[in-house]
Amino acid sequence: MSGTLSSLNSALSALRYQRLAMDVASNNIANVNSEGYVRRRAEAMSVGSPTQVAMWSRYEGAGDGVSAATISRMSDPFLEARSRRENAKQSYFDTRVTVLDRVESGIGEPGDMGVAAALADFRNSWQDLQTHPEQTASRSQVLATGQALADAVRVQAGNITTELTDQRHHALDLVAEINATARDLASVNGNIADARAAGVDASDLLDQRDVLALNLARLTGGDATVQPNGGLDVTVGGVSLVAGKTAATLAVAGGIAADGSDDGNPLMFSITGTSGTATVIPSAVGGELGAVGELLTTTLPTYLAGLDSVAQQLADSVNALHTTGFDLDGNPGQPFFSYSAAGAAGSLQVAITDPAAVAASTAAGVLDGGVADALGDLQVADLAYQRLVNGFGTEVLTSRRSSATQQLLTAQVQGSREQFTGVNFDEETVNMVAAQRAYEAAARVMTTMDSVLDTLINRTGLVR
To answer: Quick one: average pLDDT of 96-117?
Structure first.
């Protein structure tokens, strides 16, 4: 528009835009602590000359002011995708470290109360018996240290079994949380599509979408894809979990019963959607659930199997020597330890209750302590247990290092994302003051034009 009133129209458009800019800055400051909030920015667009050429007239104006093109949501899709990916890895490593630290504390090595100390005490008691084979007290000490050793092995096996049970319950809880989050994301996807179709600002819905997608990434390590309508589709292990307004259902297909017990089958997940049910192997899942799956299928069962092997070697090697000797009454030695083949570490027991039945001699009626001497030097189980604990300790240390290294990368990505999306008080204050000054200037233009028009309308032609 050109003419006498054009400046009023330009000033009015400036007042409208600068008021919007102040509102946006104020809203950013108000939501500085809101979870998932991404700062906004009012984008200005100059209103210039008409884009269509007029047939009988020519535009002679200097521009028609300013208009608010849009309110931009300061989000970088690349950083959002990186954030989801790195947070999924961080969740995986952190979950593993938390559980492995707890298991390592239960192992208690090195320490005076661990299995290694009990093995040393057991061997020492046999050496004492070799020195005094005639003493009942020395034989009782062998039984006591043997029982203490069996108890230590059973307690450690029980700790691992308890941790396995806890992680199975944890997996069921995670599956329920994942399904709830997937349903929420699908609902938000639908709301975003409806809002955009109606021309309504969907920035708050997009904030909710990103928070839910990040939570799903932390829980499952799933891959998210932004759709043209603004929604996010999520796949887990290559299988669709959220597609637009539809959320599939994740379930435990094997390995864990409904009550959290072991059903005897390999651990397996399934995703049921509109197109049917697809299986997902645990190794294809990331995030917290992937870490729990790895603990249930590999780490904890491997250590428990190693502990069973140690217990079996201990019992078999001791029994093999003990049965070659003779007890205090000259009778052939009986097996010293007993165990169940289904779980040697969890069932290890001392099979002898009578101290006189401890076989220390190499011949009947002779108290030479030869067998006791051989048992005192027997270190087959000690070496096997040392390898087992050292291997587990290395795995724990590796997990800690991986978590620490990933933390650096995650913090770097989160920092870059926060710089782009986060609210900065100094920046918003500058924006608000700039909008305030521009608003005042536009108001001054209107005041000036009012004075000019007053002179033109009310004072033209007057002679003093």
So the answer is: 92
